[in-house]
Amino acid sequence: MTTSSRTPAPTRGLAGGGPAGRRLLGAVGLLLSAAGYEAVTRAFFSPLHVPPLSAILPQALRLLAEPRFWTATGRTLLVAAIGLLIAVLAGVVVGFAIGSVPWLLRTASSTLDFLRPVPSIVLIPVLVLVLDVTQITVLLVAVSCFWIVLFQVLYGLRDVDQVAVDTARTIRLGRWGRIVHVTWPTVLPYLGTALRLVVSVALALAITGGLVMGAAGLGELIWSSQESGESTGMYALVLLTGAVGIALDLAARLAERRLLHWHVATRRELATP
Amino acid sequence: MRATVIAGLARGTRAAALALGLPVVLFVAWWLLSANSTNIFLPPLSRIVEAFGQVWLSDVFLRDVLPSLRRLATGYAAALLVGVGVGYLVGRWAVVRDLTSPILAYFRVLPAPVLIPVLLVAVGIGDATKLIVIALGAVWPILLNTADGVRAVDDVQLDTAAVYRLRHRTRHGLILRAASPQIFAGARQALGISLIVMVVSEMLMSTDGLGFTVIRFQRTFAIPQMWSGVLLLGLLGFGLAKLFELIERRVLRWHRGATGREEPR
């Protein structure tokens, strides 16, 4: 950086460039921050408050062998999945219903704009009086993800090519045929994006339900180990929660690619290794 | 001249009618349907509105709402500062980006609310904890979007700036401005997250604040008061989103104008 103050080209890394070099640097960064965390915690913190990584990692490995971790993860994922399914179904149906009727879209849009930024967790105190905590958590996931899916569907519907619609009309495709052959393929990439976005939201809310209301799952496990003072166990659980998040994110990306294997962006991505 | 004014007025009224129509209908429907409600969980809307006035337009506002707003503002501002600063470094220098990418990828997917128990143990119950939690929850979308935006700045612009030997400060300003649409996208996402984290952190550990007060009403079965708190939280979320939109529209006026892009709804 001394001879020229210009940025290096975005793809060129220090370690010779290429994906291998970049991965190596990533590993170095990971090791450096792990070492930094270890040093800082050992020097400044009591292990009761902030345990060092050398204590957290073995604990995390032990947790991986325990069935209670897997049941909790399974429950959290199940709640997230059910909520997600409801959100996608409701979002697609409502999105198509509103989006394909212009006057409906015009009248509803201000209400949708009003309701969307309302944080779904405000429902907790209301629903706690009538439903059980797992149902509420499913509902929280569903409501939060619903907005994302709905708005992606609406964006997608706006993107439908008028020429394609007219062509479909000319060859006398009915309303249903137009939806299947023109509208749906246009909306699908937007749904793929929605899928990628909602997965982490679903996980976050499934865990929030456990933290706030004690709905069985990872959130509840984390909160109870905090309350019983097992701070190392709690840190290990948080570490593993992040790993679950990464796994989900990967799964969502894979699903998106599967779903959109025919789409230009995906094909281009696959063609350039 | 007059004709266009009248036409404009008519268009304005129609737009207003379209925007307000359904909300008014829904509100009136709620009001009428709940008017004779005897279900203690679903009190009449008139009672909720009444409770709203009694609860929130009193010293509770100073005691509970203001601290919440202060925490939200401080935590969010800290997240903006750190997010844009670090995001700039990450986006501008490939080495920094390569070094940090696995860690950033991890924190991007780690749900923000799990940081609450962590900080509870690490820092303890207090204002500082809530501030840090809000900031930590909000910082990732800002950081990642800033990094992406800075990285995608047009090379020709950078070369031009270099050829003209613009000063460093001018050049940094140029890059930030070019990245600002994306920074705003991250900041908008972060605003929603910070509001959620604020409420959750107050529900879990607080002696004051909006989230705490709403939960307290619910536990003491003060149902109309609780509903009024839910209403206030909803209004707060909506108000903040609108305020953000206003600022974004002002700051990014050049962007929409220059590209002719339709504004996202």
Automatic annotation (TrEMBL), chain B:
Domain (ABC transmembrane type-1): give its ranges.
83-251
The membrane-spanning stretches of this chain are: 12-33, 73-91, 103-125, 131-153, 221-244
Q: Which PANTHER family match?
A: ABC TRANSPORTER PERMEASE PROTEIN MJ0413-RELATED (PTHR30151:SF0), ALKANE SULFONATE ABC TRANSPORTER-RELATED, MEMBRANE SUBUNIT (PTHR30151)
Task: Report the locations given in the UniProt record.
Answer: Cell membrane
Tell me which Gene3D superfamilies the record gives. MetI-like
The cellular component terms of Gene Ontology attached to this UniProt record, alphabetical and capped at eight, are:
plasma membrane
Question: Does the record carry Transmembrane helix as a key word?
Answer: yes
What membrane topology term does the record carry? Multi-pass membrane protein
Q: What is its main location?
A: membrane
Q: What is this protein called?
A: ABC transporter permease subunit
Q: Which domain of life is it from?
A: Bacteria
Q: Which Pfam families match?
A: BPD_transp_1 (PF00528)
Its GO biological process annotations read: transmembrane transport
Mind telling me which SUPFAM superfamilies this protein's record contains? MetI-like (SSF161098)
Report keywords, A-Z.
Answer: Cell membrane, Membrane, Transmembrane, Transmembrane helix, Transport
**Organism source for this protein?**
Micromonospora radicis
